[in-house]
Protein 1
Amino acid sequence: MATTHNLGFPRIGAKRELKFALESYWKGQSSRDELKALGAQLRQRHWDNQAALDLVPVGDFAFYDQVLDMSFTLGNLPERVRGFHGDALDNYFRVARGRSAEGTENQGACCGGVAAGEMTKWFDTNYHYIVPEFSAATEFSLDSSRLLDQLAQARSLGVKAKLVIIGPVTYLWLGKAKDDSDKLALLPRLLPVYAKLLDELAAQGVEWVQIDEPALVTELDAAWQQAFVAAYQALKQDKVKLLLATYFGQLLENLPLALALPVQGLHLDAINARAEAEQAVAKLPAGKILSLGVINGRNIWKSDLSAVLDWLEPVHRQLGNRLWVAPSCSLLHVPVDLDSEQKLDADIRSWLAFALQKLDELQLVAKALNQGRDAVAGALADNQAAIASRRASPRVHNPAVKAAIARLDAALGRRASPYTQRAPKQAALLRLPAYPTTTIGSFPQTGDIRQARSKFRSGELDEAGYKAAMQAEIARSVREQEALGLDVLVHGEAERNDMVEYFGEQLDGYAFSQFGWVQSYGSRCVKPPILFGDISRPQAMTVAWIKYAQSLTAKPMKGMLTGPVTILNWSFVRDDQPRSVSCHQLALAIREEVLDLEKAGVRVIQIDEAALREGLPLRKSQWNEYLGWAVESFRITANGVQDETQIHTHMCYSEFNDIIASIADMDADVITIETSRSDMELLDAFDDFKYPNEIGPGVYDIHSPNIPTQEHIVQLMKKASERIPAERLWVNPDCGLKTRAWEEVIPALTNMVAAAQALRAMR
Ligand code: GLN
Ligand code: ZN
């Protein structure tokens, strides 16, 4: 018999109940007991949802983040929150977000909160975890209360529990030594705490513990590989069984290591590492369990269950009871329930599976393995019909788009002349001063804007009314920018709900869910659009708005677009063609928009690639392949314009040293980037690499309500001019201003413009 289990379940709730409960608690509008009760209720519901499985994850629930949970379990709290009042949950929120609930922070020495823990992306997902903090002095001590409480709750409900924790090596790998000491040196201090935890779990009668070690899918040097050996030797015991879980990729050189670790079971991601799963079957040490992740935990497509069974049946014959089946990774990364979707097109809906549907698929696979396909013949036939319908659907396949992709030619991605020849032509046309000022695109998304949009959606406001409301907002933005004295203006993006969704909604090949929320961090969720078919652009998407904005001013108006790589990386994408092909399709569609803007007389066009870096593969050895097609896609989009048209791009992440050559390769005339938070230190990248075109290093952090002073901006720009010739520098904020209020934006930009004037006067 094959055993079924799950690695983790989305905890935010099908209706985002956890989000709303957290935000209400933080605002002081509900009590800690109410929050805890909601947590217990969600866990119970989610265990009910998984009741058909042989083993159900317990310990995967977190109020904010599972890595932060592990830090508390290991007693690794940053010094700055020790000794605070309140219970552990308050301290937990302090580390997570700088403060606990309103009201709790005013009772003692700690009013005003503390610095929140740093957040970073969980492997190659869009989930962000709180980075564990270490120093050479870090000590660990066990606090098993969270796990034991959840276990007790599970027990009382009759849940067939498998405890889930993050493994010691990955835990260290995820963290950051604040004093630059060697994190690995902490392993000997960490292991006894894990050993004690396993003892306590054994004492509770726990049989299986899933110990997550996804660091095994990354490039590990000899010391880290050795750490795995040492850790699992130290944790070797026979009281609880360990299922070592890896996911998100191939193990490659780490596969033999993983197979040899003294644990009772190993989970492999058979979606991303199918060939390795087959090798593991052949090499599995006697007595060891092999868990195969056969249902994709990262996408929203139905699995081709007959194809899964075709390869899994022989594996099952070989392994028998030693085979477990599961989703490839925790279902944290997919929405909860397709049944909530009432508005999705019926065809498209029939091709999809969210978390609950993925568990049904898993159940079906296990039943077919254990009882034969005949036992699930009807369901298998339905599945096959859905797969066949998607494969053949004219909604998915557009011959004209496929033909355009077949005709792709490198010339599409090349400007007619190099930057050195384009720049003087652009300068002659735009007549900008030195240190030209601009912004990144969006202006405050006010309550009025959101209200107009929601009234338009509900039908309360007609199209003409909505258009007039948005035009009024655009006019306001233009007026304010003229008054501020900015040089290159933007229309402000009032009409855009989201920089990806806005374009997705106007492109053929995209669908949108109502409740397809996925946790991004803490209480924040995103609802990625679903790229299901060949992409085409039925009509111009932004031209009318930009033309309107341009009609209001004699200053140059920047056309504002989201680039193909960012649209791709923030969507659920197709699994029936390589990402590169979808990206090229997007590139051709956005290219048409660029050319239409140019035709409409727009002389400056910005193409945002905020998410270019996010798409980087986990392994550096695969970066070049990705960067190759990602940069090519941008170039296809941007580079069909005349020399006189100035192309800008914007990226809002900070670490670009290691991909600076690829960024230069995009050949945008101007790039604006985030640099202010590091005091321009990021520009160190330009010491070794001479960025050839113009650059706008962000001069203030738009995430903060603080107003930058003119002096500070001048000083930052001077620092920048040590690295980049002043005649190629722009002055702009770090990112778009849509999350700020006008009352913050006006003084900040006033100082920014004054700083640019001061810089000009100094020349
Ligand atoms: N143009 C977008 C804006 O200004 C860019 C946002 C981003 O980089 N994330 O909002
Ligand atoms: Zn940005």
Protein 2
Amino acid sequence: MTTAAMTTGSPPPAWSDGLLVCKQVHDVTADVRTFVFEPTEPRLFRHDPGQFLTLLLDIDGRPVERCYTLSSPPTRPDLAAITVKRVPAGLVSHWLHDHLTPGTTVRARGPLGQFSLARHPAPKYLFLSAGSGVTPMMSMTRTLYDLAHPVDVAFLHSARSFDDIIFRRELDFIAATAPHIRVVHVLDDRGEQLNTELLRETAPDFLEREVFTCGPAGYMEAVRRMLSTAGFDMARYHEESFTFDAPAVPEHHTGPGYKVEFTRSGRTIDCDPGTPILAAASRAGLTLPASCAQGMCGTCKTTLLAGSVDMQHNGGIRPREIANNKILLCCAKPLDHLVIDA
Ligand code: FES
């Protein structure tokens, strides 16, 4: 508990966008670590389970932003934790594992995101995750457990091997002490696979559940295919994944191309009407601040100085910002020639 909370008895205000100090680092598996943070001023983390923070880092003099789901639950609001897998060739994950030690201060933005059971209340959930996609599910599971909420959860988590199961001991403890939460580990090296038979075995009523999925793109695609083939109502399906590859560019372009002028860099690029501006910029070799590439984190927010766009975002921008000509480059497609303050 923070000093202010202990001495005044009144809860500190909510934390949002600012400095965090790393309080603790611990190994979860051989290549996964949890980093626990506290705000530098007395604040509480009020967030929905499943939301994420964007870390704003300076790595070798280069500003880098990355989204990480909070693995900690809002029921433990004095500290916030992220759980990060060291990814081969992953600039940020390597930096975090190698440099982020207790006492290090980082800047962060958030919490943000719509991927939360708080946004989709239901009596029964099916959580499907793979690898480090377990983190939002862990925040949601910890929340339900802490609140002794009698919501029925079937949680199937896929990992390469027994030793790679993130939060294995805690998940097993939760499953052993909360009868309404069932946890099944699906292990590659044992030849196990997430399929409809396993789903039916674990949760025969899976077609009636609200589904949350998080993992690599291929995993989520397979889950989508499996559920829709089984007749699942995809309106009750929610997924999230943070991938940091260059944004995808549609293969087939329609209609006339537009010019997009970036005033700060002095560059002008071509952008087809069906292509997000960020993707076109990336294709043209222009590096712009971005993180989730899904209209969620707000990292790519900038000002539209001229022209109009079609923007389908996922909560990363507020209505009043849109009214003030702000746009998210990752999910805005040109409807006109554009001039952008970037
Ligand atoms: Fe996250 Fe655009 S990169 S909203």
Protein 3
Amino acid sequence: MTTYREFHARSIRDKDGFWREQAALVDWKKPFDRVLDYSRPPFANWFVGGTTNLCHNAVDRHLAARGEQNALIYVSTETDQEKNYTFNQLYREVNRFAGILKGLGVGRGDRVLIYMPMIPEAMFAMLACVRIGAIHSVVFGGFASVSLATRIDDAKPKVIVSADAGSRAGKAVPYKALLDEAIALSKCPPGKVVLVNRGLAELPMVAGRDLDYATLRAAHMNDEVPCEWLESSEPSYILYTSGTTGRPKGVQRDTGGYAVALAASMKHIFCGNAGETYFSTSDIGWVVGHSYIVYGPLIAGMATVMYEGTPIRPDGGIWWKIVEQHKVTTMFSSPTAIRVLKKQDPAFLKKYDLSSLRLLFLAGEPLDEPTARWIADGLGKPVVDNYWQTETGWPILAIPRGVEALPSKFGSPGVPCYGYDVKLFSEIDGAEVGADQKGVVGIEGPLPPGCMTTVWDDDERFVKTYWTSVPNRQVYSTFDWGIRDKDGYYFILGRTDDVINVAGHRLGTREIEESISSHPNIAEVAVVGVADQLKGQVAVAFAVVKDASKIATPELKLAHEGEVMKTVDAQLGAVARPARVHFVNVLPKTRSGKLLRRSIQAICEGRDPGDLTTIEDPTALDQIRAAIADR
Ligand code: PRX
């Protein structure tokens, strides 16, 4: 048996041989001529000349062996619905949706924006897009009009697919109304909007633009739409993610590399087998949803559970009930979700038959030891922390148990996954740092298959953002701090940039600042991420107002804080709403005008604010202290 160490070493040393073997896990229409073209670093082309299709690999190729087995198990505790789709049924639905899109003139390379709640039609739409070579861009349903408009303008979709509403804890959450607002703000409005009517909210239709999905579906009932065979490097999708600037980046994914990476990860990391059931509690709007609700499990021939609802409704046992009912073997969730469950009666962990479950994967944010222990002991199953990013599409660090079940260490997501040449670099001079020393987590190019190939429509931004931030090196920066122990296990210590992680949701503090600044009475604002017991981090804002009379009394202050929060809700969505908005007269800045966010954050967390020799007005920090103490 190969040890994992050898397996990983070979993936770096003999990329051609290693990935050629992994590539056999998926179907190719035309075999590739070369495994890798890295003649134009940092742009990597994997499986050059090969043609394939993600939908074929996720759906069509399973029809012969498992057409009558479940492919999609849909459970909504919001609408009390459960619907199962076999691979045959999923195939039919995807063909209908593909027929609809083609009928609307969508073709290879065209963009389709999907702004949908967790309903099966969202998955049909995604698969239909990749089937016909269209590029989907799924926008998380928690984002509101301005976030959505920014993404519409960047992706320039021909068609948008949406619905009347989602539902959260039994309350309808409008989608169409926000979409209409976003389209009104957009400089590139789509030609057509396809709307699924769930009967949850009013659905006013704009004549000539808005189309009813049920009517279209009926008209395309018997459509058979062949897969478009794409060259491996052709884009499959764009997924926007937050960074240091206020403008989100469109992470672009290829087709062949992504299919291979997911198929390989299902085998070596997730240990999932065809015919079994995978349950990821994420949302299709995030990368985990793309890779491990939709594509990964289906490519592996597994049934995938799509769940609409919270972890605690009707009670804290709902997820375990699903595991029992559908014999889930592999589960994927987030540390925050487990911390939410931890507040429930622990008896729920013992109430259902969980014998089918082999592994619970957790990712998206640091996994603290008490949470890891609580769930591992409660379930009596191994918990597998894994660290990655929207950019990479699949784990960078984990314990690839399908190769070798190395021991895990609390607080560490594990060792570098095969294909990733992970190193730690000094932020000062780019020198590699050794064991037990803190550095920036970087990856030597080429990034392995499945990782982002560029920033949508902006190659230069891809190079500049990701490949020039470690000094004197052309390496990919994760923008995370890390440390490695003598056994080669990594520990992630937080972001090096202004990105924060709220309940596993990645948010840019700059985006939130821009939104708050648009409030007419805000002159200046700083937003920082502050440690939170439940959510990992929360956003906290410090704002300077233009007209101080609006915050003259404690009551007025509170009302004003609420107003600012509402602005963020309306523009970016409740997911980005700061937990607190404090008002101050001046913000701590350097003499050259740079906000001292790190110092503000340190004070909020009761730590030393660090080196303040460059601060313009030292009393600004006292104001931050006073503002926090005030409540
Ligand atoms: O800071 C790291 C943190 O989440 C960031 C990526 O977030 P996102 O693009 O939403 O992708 C999530 C994919 C699972 C990382 O830069 N992060 C993610 N996983 C972990 C983590 N931090 C610590 N431990 C993890 N397991």
